[in-house]
Amino acid sequence: MADKDFADYEAPTPIIPTTLVAISSVNPPGATPVPGSFQTPAPIPFDSPWYAVWQRHSPSEFLLEFYVLILITFVVSFHTWGVRRNRRIAREWVSQNKDVLEREFAMVGFDAKGRPNTLTEGGQDKLLSEAGFGKKEVPVDLILRENSPTEFVVYATGRNNVAFMHMSISLMRRNNPIALVGEFLAGFIFDAIPEPRDSVTVTLAPFDGGEQALLQAGGKKGESSKFDNFIWALVNKKTMNKWRQERYDLSLTITRDWEGLPSWCSIMTEAKEIGDLVLTKEIKEAVEKVGEDGGLEYLLISDQRLEKPKKIEETVPKKRQILHLTLPSSNSLFSLIPFLPSPAPNAATPALLSAFIRFTDHLVSVAHFRPEVHRKLKATRDEQIKALQKVKDEEEKEERDQKKAEEKKRGRDARLRGMTSDEQRRFLEKEKEKEMRRAAKKGKGIKM
């Protein structure tokens, strides 16, 4: 029996919640748990070895890490597939057209020493056999250079009338699925943002008479490759307005339908006579073979810039010959699905590329227009130069006026510093009266 005098120092009786008493009575230790009831967790064995992590943790604790790992695996796998798919598309296009490049240029690709690599002894070509040379194949790996997973380039030189050829193959960001989806969504929502496409841009730089300096340095003579400055383009009507807005040189042209061309094509030129002289039968046939959905965007000859010049120095003519194509892989969802082959390149592209390269020879021989046409073309360029000159003169006038105002202000401040307070007050009052008289005269002039 407990002593009442020490009741305050006794240990309190533990209070057990009725819910736990009820649960423990439902699930006694060692018994089968009742569904929906609380089950006391099994004790953690502290005497387990250090490496027995499975006894101290469960997979449910790493669900977040598991999802992150799945995401990383997906991105890395898609990146690897996208890089390989882009390389395959570029290699297939170059493989299809490299015969044309080897036939037209003495050096194709990126040779470290810049030597001709398409020539070999014992060839059957008539022109080359006279010099003891013939043609040979160049590996695709030597022709094609990868600048990035989405950009590949080809270079070629060594041809009459052409200084060099630069080919840029721009492909979709298959290596970056997040950026690719974002570009598609932006192109779908905003009209000003184009959807991603696979495209090829071939740029030829004509010598335009520049080879004469090289010939004279070597003590040789040859015919000049110079031809008149003009703008001419064969465009696909589907994208004609787009290129007119994006390219300054095409904004200077007028659009015409041309006899002998398919209905989906149009000519953009500065004068009708230019089209009569420039367009060749070989190009007409090649365009017909390519077809409306074959990827042809435009074929352009221009001496003006892509962007509108902002300085007079930028108006100097610089001839370029450009062929812009869209690849079939842009129009197929299969090119975006792993483990499915992408569409093959258009079989008619080599004929178009060949006609495009030989087009320079045709321009050298026929692109010499009548004086009336030449004056019209020159007047268009002179108007742009006059507009830029006017802007330049206005800017120079503003600079002169600003310097004059600054010098006048410095002289006024110097005079004020040399005056007494009364002289400064009278000087400022006179300035104020002059300003009021000027304002009054201006007001009378406006009323009259």
Summarize the structure.
44% of the residues lie in helices and 14% in strands. It is an alpha+beta fold and 448 residues long.
Question: What attributes does this structure have?
Answer:
ten-stranded antiparallel β-sheet, 12 helices, 448 residues, two-stranded antiparallel ribbon, 12 strands, alpha+beta
Blueprint of the fold:
Elements: H1 18-26, H2 63-104, E1 107-108, E2 119-120, H3 126-129, E3 134-135, H4 140-143, E4 144-148, E5 151-157, E6 162-170, H5 177-189, E7 199-206, H6 211-217, E8 232-236, H7 240-246, E9 254-256, E10 265-269, H8 272-278, H9 281-290, E11 296-302, E12 320-326, H10 349-366, H11 371-417, H12 421-447
Antiparallel strand pairs: 1-5, 2-3, 4-5, 5-6, 6-7, 7-12, 8-10, 8-11, 9-10, 11-12
Describe this structure in words.
The structure is a single chain. Strands 1, 4, 5, 6, 7, 8, 9, 10, 11 and 12 form a ten-stranded antiparallel β-sheet that branches. Strands 2-3 form a two-stranded antiparallel ribbon. With 448 residues, it is of the alpha+beta class. The chain is 44% helix and 14% strand. α2 (63-104) crosses α10 and α9 packs antiparallel against α10. The chain has twelve helices and twelve strands. The chain is extended, with a radius of gyration of 40 Å. It has helices at 18-26, 63-104, 126-129, 140-143, 177-189, 211-217, 240-246, 272-278, 281-290, 349-366, 371-417, 421-447; strands spanning 107-108, 119-120, 134-135, 144-148, 151-157, 162-170, 199-206, 232-236, 254-256, 265-269, 296-302, 320-326.
